[in-house]
Design a protein that fits this description.
17% of the residues lie in helices and 42% in strands. By secondary structure, the chain is of the alpha+beta class. It folds into two domains: 114 residues, 2,3-Dihydroxybiphenyl 1,2-Dioxygenase, domain 1 (Roll), CATH 3.10.180; 114 residues, Roll (2,3-Dihydroxybiphenyl 1,2-Dioxygenase, domain 1), CATH 3.10.180. A hairpin with a 3-residue loop joins strand 6 and strand 7. It holds the Pfam family Glyoxalase_6. InterPro entries: Anthracycline_SecMetBiosynth (IPR052164), Glyas_Bleomycin-R_OHBP_Dase (IPR029068), Glyoxalase_6 (IPR041581), VOC_core (IPR037523). This is VOC domain-containing protein.
Length: 267
C-alpha cells in the first residue's frame, strides 16, 4: 500500500471539509449505471437518489440518508477509463482551475455549475492523474465517515513523489510529511496539520496500463468477508487482504473495471 494513513475515518477524525485541498467527495463515471448501483448497493449497503445531471445521468449514494459518494453514467460514445475520482475542496473553483493550468496541469471539464449543489471542474496533474475540484454550495460533500462503505483515504499512485508533490503544494498549499526510507517513496499531504491524502512513488512498479492515478480506500467492517463477496457480485480481487499498521487492506475491481481499496481499521 500504500498505507492508508487515516484522514477522515476513525484513524484521524474529520477535518474541515471546505478547507482548500481537503478531499470532500468521490465520484465514479460508468457505462452501466444500474449494474453499478446493484454492485455497490450489495457491497456497501448504499441506497441511491438522483443528483445534478449536468454531466449526464447521476446519482448520489446514501447510507442512512447521508451522502457518501456519486456515480454517473458516461455517454455511449465516450470510451474513457472507469475510475473513482476524488474531489478536492476549493473556495473558488475558477481560480483554482487557473492555478492548475499555471502549474502545468490540465483542466478537462468545467468549471461549471451543478445546479444549486456547487461548482466543479475535472483536472489532471502534470503526470496525467485525474482529480476533481469542488466548490460547495448546498452540497458540502461526503456526509458520513468511519463506517462500512464510506471513503477512508485517497492516495495518488505515481512514478515519483518529488515533482508531483510540488504541483499539489503549489495548487493547494499542502504541508508535506515524507517517509524517510531508501526503498519507500511516500509523502503524506496535510491540511492544517491533519493528514488528508498520500502520494506513493512506485517507479517501475506503477501499472503500465494505467499510468499515474488516484486510488480511493473505503472503510469496511470485515475485509476478508468483503473479498468473499466479490465474485458473486461480479467483481474480483486484485490484491488479497493483508495486515498493515493502519488496518487490514485489500485492492479490488468492480464489474466495470474501477479499482479501489478496502480497509478494515483497527477496532
Amino acid at each position: 500500500m500504500t498505507e492508508a494513513r487515516g484522514s477522515t475515518g476513525p484513524n484521524g477524525g474529520t477535518p474541515a471539509r471546505n478547507t482548500l485541498g481537503t478531499p470532500c467527495w468521490v465520484s465514479l463515471m460508468v457505462h452501466g449505471l444500474a449494474m453499478t448501483e446493484e454492485f455497490y448497493g450489495a457491497l456497501f449497503g448504499w441506497e441511491f437518489e438522483p443528483g445534478p445531471q449536468q454531466l449526464g445521468p447521476y446519482v448520489r449514494a446514501l447510507l442512512g440518508g447521508r451522502e457518501v459518494a456519486g456515480i454517473g453514467q458516461l455517454p455511449p460514445d465516450r470510451h474513457l477509463p472507469v475510475a473513482w475520482t476524488p474531489y478536492l475542496a476549493s473556495d473558488y473553483v475558477d481560480q483554482t482551475a487557473d492555478t492548475v493550468r499555471l502549474c502545468g496541469g490540465t483542466v478537462a471539464v468545467g468549471p461549471l455549475t451543478a445546479a444549486d449543489a456547487g461548482r466543479l471542474a475535472i483536472a489532471s496533474d502534470p503526470s496525467g492523474a485525474v482529480f476533481g475540484l469542488w466548490q460547495a454550495a448546498r452540497h458540502l460533500g461526503t456526509d458520513v465517515t468511519g463506517v462500512h462503505g464510506t471513503p477512508a483515504w485517497n492516495e495518488l499512485l505515481t512514478f515519483e513523489t518529488a515533482s508531483v508533490a510540488k504541483f499539489y503544494h503549489s495548487v493547494f498549499g499542502y504541508e508535506q510529511e515524507p517517509v524517510v526510507s531508501a526503498d519507500f517513496d511516500y509523502v503524506t499531504l496535510l491540511v492544517e496539520g491533519r493528514p488528508v491524502a498520500g502520494i506513493h512513488g512506485m517507479g517501475h512498479g506503477l501499472p503500465r496500463d494505467r499510468g499515474p492515478h488516484w486510488l480511493t480506500y473505503f472503510e469496511v467492517e470485515d475485509a476478508d468477508e468483503t473479498l468473499r463477496q466479490m465474485p458473486s457480485l461480479g467483481g474480483h480481487v486484485l490484491k488479497p487482504a493483508r495486515d498493515s499498521e493502519h488496518g487490514r487492506v485489500a485492492t479490488v475491481v468492480d464489474p466495470e473495471g474501477a479499482i479501489f481499496s478496502v480497509i478494515e481499521s483497527p477496532r
